[in-house]
Structure formats: structure tokens, C-alpha cells
């Protein structure tokens, strides 16, 4: 599959749709116009890639809806050179959006099949996250903490403590919390011990799975 003018035209429309739904951050919208989402999907979904919808990506996982990706990214308030931890690499689309914003991205995926596939895909596309890790996101990534931002792209039944403790003071954790449905929640670290908590609407994600071993 290639990226053509037709695709970039569809991306411009998608960015308009997302802006109408309330996304204001110019850089986030620019990243949506830039990243070729159709290449992150199975070719059978090519025609639909620029609809504002989630799609299956194998291993019972989904690529999040573009509006949701934009909403979470806006809440992260990414600045160039920020170090950002992403939990749930999946297709790599959210990772690519963060890279467009010039963040240093560390991303963790617990499904080996997806991890391998997406790692190869990044190499092929020239996307360069700092680290792509096969592991359990509940633990965060202590070796590279603290982070300016942490984004969880699966529904978390509770807020994992390590993620809060791996934020810099001033850093933000954006996490959908809940089982059947999730409340998009943002924690901002105000000091070593204090966190501000904001709840920002209902979403539906695949579950953040806990390792049984
Ligand atoms: N950011 C992805 C969204 C993928 S869906 C994208 O843009 O495509 C959520 C992903 O979280 C799935 O790939 C799933 O395998 C992964 N996941 C679930 N539980 C996890 C855990 N404990 N640690 C890391 N990844 C996890």
C-alpha cells in the first residue's frame, strides 16, 4: 500500500471532523493530517481508514478511534523533547502521533504477536521510538522514569501506582479507568505527594490486562 494525495485529502477531512468534535490543539490536528493511518491497518480496511472509527488489528485488539487518540494526546500536552511513556503499543498509530509531536516515546505492549509486528512496521516506516518494549504496562518503565507524560491506551480497572510514581512533578497521566466503560482521567503531579485528578468523559477501550504469571 502507498500513501497518495487521495489519502492525504481524506486525512484533511478526518482532521476537520475531529476538530468539529472539539479538538483544538493545532499540533495534534496537524499530526492527524500527517500520519498515514491506512498503513497501520490491514489492507482490507483501507477504504475505511479515515472514518472516525476503531478497527480490529488482530490478537483481539483494536486501533483506537482517531478522535479518542486526538483527545488523549491533547490532554497529554506534549511539548517537543518531552519523554512520554505509552502503555499499549497496538498498531503503533498513537505512537506515530506522539513522534510527530517530537516527543521521545517509550512504548510497551504485552501481546508478543503485536509487539513483533509493530516493531517491524516502525522500522519499515522509519518511525523511531526510543524504546519498544515487550512487557507489562502495569509496572511502567522504571529504568527510563520519570516521564513528562504517560498515556494508557487500554481500559484500566484501577490506576496502577507505579505509573503515578513515574511522573515528573508537572507531568501528566492520561488513563481511561473502568471495566465495561471507562472514565477518561487525567492526573497531574503537583508535587512529590500531590496529584490533581480530572475526569473527562466516558469511553470504551479494550481491557488493560494483568499478567497472570
Ligand atoms: N495505542 C494503540 C491502541 C491499541 S489497543 C493503537 O494506537 O493502535 C490497546 C493495546 O494495549 C493492545 O494492543 C493490548 O494488547 C495492549 N495491552 C493490554 N494490556 C496491556 C498491558 N498490561 N501492558 C501493555 N500493553 C497492554
TrEMBL record:
One of its GO terms (molecular function) is protein-L-isoaspartate (D-aspartate) O-methyltransferase activity. GO terms for cellular component: cytoplasm. Keywords: Cytoplasm, Methyltransferase, S-adenosyl-L-methionine, Transferase. CDD domains: AdoMet_MTases (cd02440). It catalyses: [protein]-L-isoaspartate + S-adenosyl-L-methionine = [protein]-L-isoaspartate alpha-methyl ester + S-adenosyl-L-homocysteine. Its EC number is 2.1.1.77. Its main location: cytoplasm. InterPro entries: PCMT, SAM-dependent_MTases_sf. It is found in: Cytoplasm. One of its GO terms (biological process) is methylation. The active site is at residue 64. PANTHER family: PROTEIN-L-ISOASPARTATE O-METHYLTRANSFERASE, PROTEIN-L-ISOASPARTATE(D-ASPARTATE) O-METHYLTRANSFERASE. Catalyzes the methyl esterification of L-isoaspartyl residues in peptides and proteins that result from spontaneous decomposition of normal L-aspartyl and L-asparaginyl residues. It plays a role in the repair and/or degradation of damaged proteins. Belongs to the methyltransferase superfamily. L-isoaspartyl/D-aspartyl protein methyltransferase family. This is Protein-L-isoaspartate O-methyltransferase.
Amino acid at each position: 500500500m502507498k500513501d497518495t494525495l487521495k489519502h492525504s485529502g481524506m486525512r484533511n477531512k478526518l482532521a476537520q471532523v475531529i476538530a468539529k468534535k472539539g479538538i483544538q490543539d493545532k499540533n495534534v490536528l496537524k499530526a492527524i493530517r500527517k500520519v498515514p493511518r491506512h498503513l497501520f491497518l490491514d489492507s482490507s480496511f483501507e477504504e475505511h481508514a479515515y472514518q472516525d472509527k476503531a478497527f480490529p488489528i488482530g490478537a483481539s485488539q483494536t486501533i483506537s478511534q482517531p478522535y479518542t487518540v486526538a483527545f488523549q494526546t491533547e490532554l497529554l500536552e506534549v511539548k517537543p523533547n518531552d519523554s512520554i511513556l505509552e502503555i499499549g503499543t497496538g498498531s503503533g498509530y498513537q505512537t506515530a502521533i506522539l513522534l510527530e509531536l517530537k516527543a521521545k516515546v517509550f512504548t510497551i505492549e504485552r501481546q508478543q504477536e503485536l509487539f513483533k509486528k509493530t516493531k517491524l512496521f516502525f522500522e519499515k516506516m522509519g518511525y523511531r521510538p526510543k524504546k519498544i518494549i515487550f512487557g507489562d504496562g502495569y509496572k511502567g518503565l522504571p529504568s527510563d522514569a520519570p516521564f513528562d507524560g504517560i498515556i494508557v491506551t487500554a481500559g484500566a480497572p484501577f490506576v496502577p501506582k507505579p505509573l503515578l510514581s513515574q511522573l515528573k512533578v508537572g507531568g501528566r497521566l492520561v488513563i481511561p479507568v473502568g471495566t465495561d466503560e471507562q472514565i477518561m482521567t487525567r492526573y497531574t503531579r503537583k508535587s512529590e505527594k500531590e496529584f490533581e485528578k480530572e475526569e473527562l468523559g466516558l469511553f470504551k477501550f479494550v481491557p488493560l490486562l494483568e499478567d497472570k504469571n
